[in-house]
Amino acid sequence: MMHTYKESLTGAFFGLSTDYIHDYPYFDQYKGLIHIHWNRCKDPIHLKVDGVGVELLPGQMTTTTYLNRLVFESDTTHLTSFGFNREFYCIIDHDHEVSCNGILFFGNQKPPIITPNDRERQRFDLEFEVLKEEYQTRDRVQGEMLRTLLKRLIIRATRLAKEQLWPEGIHDEQTDLIRQYKVLVDTHFRDKHQVAEYAEMLYKSPKTLTNVFKKYDQPSPLQIIQDRIALEAKRLLMYSDKTTKEIAHEVGFSDVSSFHRSFKKVTKLTPQEFKKSHELELV
Question: What is the pLDDT along the chain (283 residues), one digit of tens a residue?
């Protein structure tokens, strides 16, 4: 089953599929989509996101953005997915409404996996049924109703992610600082490699950032930059024909040897070794 809502004037798109693996080619024609994936089946669902294996147990959810590359395992069963673009609902412009950036979307080195309990599962099921009904209501306010329902879905998923994936006792102020830093790194990692550059954008000192991240058991601010650079490099090594020199330049290194050292520090492999290991997995 697939439902879609489109606005020809703005290019807005919001789609719902209960068999995303089958419907993926249709969704893929819309660029810049952000997804919430939900395993509503009785069996685990296996997929790879940027080359990393992900297992979604029954009831679990995860998210991906247009930056991610998905590969589905051959035994993958029906996966329910909600996909939308920024023309339909921009999570950057409306961050004050949903506060999901750096928690659900963007700024994550691996897909967040959330596990609704039975009560939350019932709430998500109800949201799902209301969404299906609204897709079939064609009137002038349909788009706004769908945006409202999507926003509710994002807020509910974000709350669960904060409860399950973030340190206990962390305050909103610290949460906002950490997630804002991660989103800034996601945006500027190609041309800003120093913590001080991001600290200035956040009107904080590098020491303040380091102390906050350490207090709440987060990777250091510098490690987040290095991990993000390595993640992009891995994507390019796996899914493009670019040379190591071209990749180094694309992630902001003028010196290939410096890129080699940075990549190996994070992955424990040289770029060539990583590419070869990925090619062997495909054989």
Answer: 999 999 999 999 999 999 999 999 999 999 999 999 999 999 999 999 998 899 999 999 999 999 999 988 766 678 999 999 999 999 989 998 999 999 999 988 889 999 999 999 999 999 999 999 999 999 999 999 999 999 999 999 999 999 999 988 888 899 999 999 999 999 999 999 999 999 999 999 999 999 999 999 999 999 999 999 999 999 999 999 999 999 999 999 999 999 999 999 999 999 999 998 877 665 4
Nearest 5°: the CA angle 4, 65, 121 is 65
Q: Which CATH architecture has domain 2-165?
A: Sandwich (2.60)
Residue whose C-alpha is closest to residue 271's, from 256, 253, 282: 256
- Residue 14: CB atoms within 10 A of its CB come to 25
User: Does the domain made of 173-282 have the CATH classification 1.10.150.20?
Assistant: no
Would you kindly state where each structural domain of the chain is located, as residue ranges?
2-165, 173-282
- Strands across the sheet containing 80-84: 2-7, 12-17, 80-84, 34-38, 61-64, 113-114
Q: Is the whole model's pTM more than 0.85, yes or no? A: yes
H-helix or E-strand containing 220?
Answer: none
